[in-house]
UniProtKB/TrEMBL annotation:
It catalyses: L-alanyl-L-leucyl-L-alanine(out) + H(+)(out) = L-alanyl-L-leucyl-L-alanine(in) + H(+)(in); glycyl-L-glutamine(out) + H(+)(out) = glycyl-L-glutamine(in) + H(+)(in); carnosine(out) + H(+)(out) = carnosine(in) + H(+)(in); L-phenylalanyl-L-leucine(out) + H(+)(out) = L-phenylalanyl-L-leucine(in) + H(+)(in). Belongs to the major facilitator superfamily. Proton-dependent oligopeptide transporter (POT/PTR) (TC 2.A.17) family. The lineage of its organism: Eukaryota, Metazoa, Chordata, Craniata, Vertebrata. It is a multi-pass membrane protein. SUPFAM superfamilies: MFS general substrate transporter. This is Solute carrier family 15 member 1. Residues 675-699 are annotated as: Disordered. Keywords: Cell membrane, Glycoprotein, Membrane, Peptide transport, Protein transport, Symport, Transmembrane, Transmembrane helix, Transport. PROSITE patterns: PTR2_1, PTR2_2.
Length: 699
């Protein structure tokens, strides 16, 4: 460390803070769209992937600005300012109280929040993307040519800071989001979840600027991507000009650039384009990979996150970086050597093919998990339908007939049926028979609604009450809905912890109240002057709805019955680990190998072109997701997972065929050959000059 330039530590700290800022914000973004802006899943997914695609398109712009005009230092500073402003705008846009003038807990001007959020995200995309290709290269510039070992150590520290920042932020920001804050009403704390990354980005900028006088700043020397683009453009233009048969064909279409560009640049461009051609199928891998932050996080919202401590849906993304840390050394030092011992020629392109296959299987695993989730998802009435459920609060069995002659159901004492679906126009009344006493309940039902008929056999006949449930979806964010029915003969005042349900008359029901998920029971208290009785509730699950009937009181102990209206999330989040494991294994053999292969096949001065091409495949992959999410007509999420798995499997086969025709090259040999040719040409020119000089002297 004593030999390290002091400026390096400012760069490493800057990168840690920036990555914390980016990944922290990104971890909670999809849930912000879903729960704060109230966008439906497909639209939220499309916007999320539009943002990610923009983050991977802008690095090309950042590299061109840095190499051609401003230089790396100024580019990093200016775009970091843009980045910090974007984070701040996003944080302000997520403040609920900004437009909640009537203090009902919902923004009154959602359009303003959307506008601020989109402006913030666009600025962030330009900021993070623009500095992405500059920071690591700027760090490399701080070392002299003979400090190769120190430079290598720096890059290790640099990537360690990236992983540390992303790992910590994925733990911290979902917890910040899950807390409640607000001036007038308590809401999920998105301003804090976005505000902390904004502060970290501001710190990153300040730290980077502090080291300004210590940095070695290399002046802009032109961008090789522009040179390659001009060479390719000129070759195409020249070939089009000479398209008639009178002009002889050339060995390669890029040879048409030889009139303007030297042979070495053309040969190097050929090598680059040869690799870029193999990049064509790669976006499909990223289309699946980047859905960890969108579809898989949304999938986790419908699952049980009880690991002893409550894990937030967006915290499941942390499984990927943890597995990366474990799997990279396992694959490098165990799997690959074993394959080598088996004398299998496991080339880089074969490794990438296996990575694609594993990612495809990860989505098959996600589809299987989704099928199990769908089994626990309630089915609500469609247009023209109504659902009715029966609760027998008495001690005598009963039979209920749905008139006219639609269905007959037996209901045991203190039991409830499930919801039964009927065509609204056909269901006219309910006929209740209990212990030779009967009653007809006329019905006036609304389409698309759920109702509960609570009844009991009393001393003077059958008492009943048709209750409108007013629930059209499963509770979100793992919260629960709870209501009470009074099974007493006189009014009862009911509270549960500090939540008041009011005074309920006999057989009447309270409205549903949202109950936070917690690891302990609630204290239910029923006041019946002159006495009050209490009891602890059952432990509620995650995302369920419950009706609790208050039955009677014995020695100040309240007797209650819990009825499950909507089943809680029963599929555990741990079932997502296999799909994360498969995808991470795919990433290890695909992404790491892909970059290694690209760099091994590229000339030394063309590596930035391949890095730009690699980032472009990530952007295109995200564009594929937003197209599918926007255009998909699939009703079931598991079917979409299967679709993506099938698409990647097809692309995997195509890539394997393309790879089989690829011939590996050694760019160093080709560069050495050109270098030798240049030396011979220079020597020949020198000999010619000497002969010319000798001839002149004789004259």
């Amino acid at each position: 460390c004593s030999d390290f330039p002091l400026s390096i530590f400012f760069i490493v700290i800057n990168e840690f803070c920036e990555r914390f800022s980016y990944y922290g914000m990104k971890a909670v973004l999809i849930l912000y769209f879903k729960y704060f802006l109230h966008w439906e899943d497909n639209f939220a997914t499309a916007i999320y992937h539009t943002f990610v695609a923009l983050c991977y398109l802008t690095p090309i712009l950042g590299a061109i600005i840095a190499d051609s005009w401003l230089g790396k230092f100024k580019t990093i500073v200016y775009l970091s300012i843009v980045y910090t402003i974007g984070q701040a705008v996003l944080s302000v846009g997520s403040i609920n109280d900004l437009t909640d003038h009537n203090r009902d807990g919902s923004p009154d001007n959602v359009a303003l929040h959307i506008a601020l959020s989109m402006i913030g995200l666009i600025l962030i995309a330009f900021g993070t993307g623009g500095i992405k290709p500059c920071v690591s290269a700027f760090g490399g510039d701080q070392f002299e040519e003979d400090q190769e070992e120190l430079r290598s150590t720096f890059f290790s520290l640099f990537y360690l800071s990236i992983n540390a920042g992303s790992l910590l932020s994925t733990i911290v920001t979902p917890n910040l989001r899950a807390t409640e804050c607000g001036i007038h009403t308590k809401q999920r704390c998105y301003p804090l979840a976005f505000g902390v990354p904004a502060v970290l980005m501001a710190i990153a900028l300040v730290v980077f600027v502090i080291g300004s006088k210590m940095y070695k700043k290399v002046k802009p020397q032109g961008n090789v991507m522009l040179q390659v683009s001009k060479c390719v453009g000129f070759a195409i233009k020249n070939r089009f000009k000479h398209r008639s048969k009178e002009f002889p064909k050339r060995e390669h279409w890029l040879d048409w650039a030889s009139e303007k560009y030297d042979k070495q640049l053309i040969a190097q461009t050929k090598m680059v384009l040869k690799v870029l051609f193999l990049y064509i199928p790669l976006p499909m891998f990223w289309a699946l990979f980047d859905q960890q932050g969108s579809r898989w996080t949304l999938q986790a919202t419908a699952m049980n996150g009880d690991f002893g401590i409550l894990i937030q849906p967006d915290q499941m993304q942390i499984v990927n970086p943890i597995l990366i840390v474990i799997m990279v050394p396992v694959v490098d030092y165990l799997v690959y050597p074993l394959i080598k011992k088996c004398k299998i020629n496991f080339t880089p392109l074969k490794k990438m093919t296996v990575g694609m296959f594993l990612a495809s299987m990860a989505f098959v695993a996600a589809a299987l998990v989704q099928v199990q989730i769908d089994k626990t998802t309630p089915v609500f009435p469609a247009a023209g339908q109504t659902q009715v459920r029966l609760i027998n609060l008495g001690v005598v069995p009963a039979t209920v007939q749905f008139q006219p002659k639609l269905q007959s159901v037996d209901v045991a004492p203190n039991e409830a049926t499930g919801y039964m679906t009927f065509e609204t126009s056909k269901l006219k009344s309910l006929h209740i028979i209990s212990a030779s006493v009967n009653k007809t309940e006329p019905l006036q039902l609304q389409e698309g609604q759920r109702y509960t008929l609570a009844f009991k056999r009393g001393l003077l006949g059958i008492n009943s009450n048709l209750i409108w449930d007013n629930v059209t979806s499963k509770p979100e964010e793992g919260k629960n809905l709870v209501r009470f029915i009074n099974n007493y003969l006189f009014p009862v005042n009911i509270t549960m912890d500090d939540i008041a349900f009011g005074v309920l008359s006999p057989l009447s029901a309270s409205n549903y109240s949202v109950i936070p998920n917690q690891e302990w029971s609630f204290l239910i208290k029923a006041s019946m002057p002159p006495v009050s009785c209490t009891v602890l509730s059952k432990k509620f699950g995650y995302g369920g709805a419950y009706t609790i009937s208050v039955d009677d009181c014995t020695n100040y102990r309240l007797n209650v019955t819990h009825f499950e209206d909507i089943a809680p999330n029963t599929v555990h989040m741990a079932w997502q680990i296999p799909q994360y494991f498969l995808l991470t294994c795919g990433e290890v053999v695909f992404s790491v190998t892909g970059l290694e292969f690209s760099y091994s096949q590229a000339p030394s001065n063309m590596k930035s072109v391949l890095q730009a091409g690699w980032l472009l495949t990530v952007a295109v992959g995200n564009i594929i997701v937003l197209i599918v999410a926007g255009a998909s007509k699939l009703d079931k999420q598991w079917a979409e997972y299967v679709l993506f798995a099938a698409l990647l499997l097809v692309v995997c086969i195509i890539f394997a065929i393309m790879a089989s025709f690829y011939t590996y090259v050694d760019p160093n040999e080709i560069e050495a050959q050109f270098s030798e040719e240049k030396k011979e040409e220079d020597k020949k020119d020198q000999d010619d000059n000497e002969k010319e000089a000798e001839a002149d002297s004789r004259m």
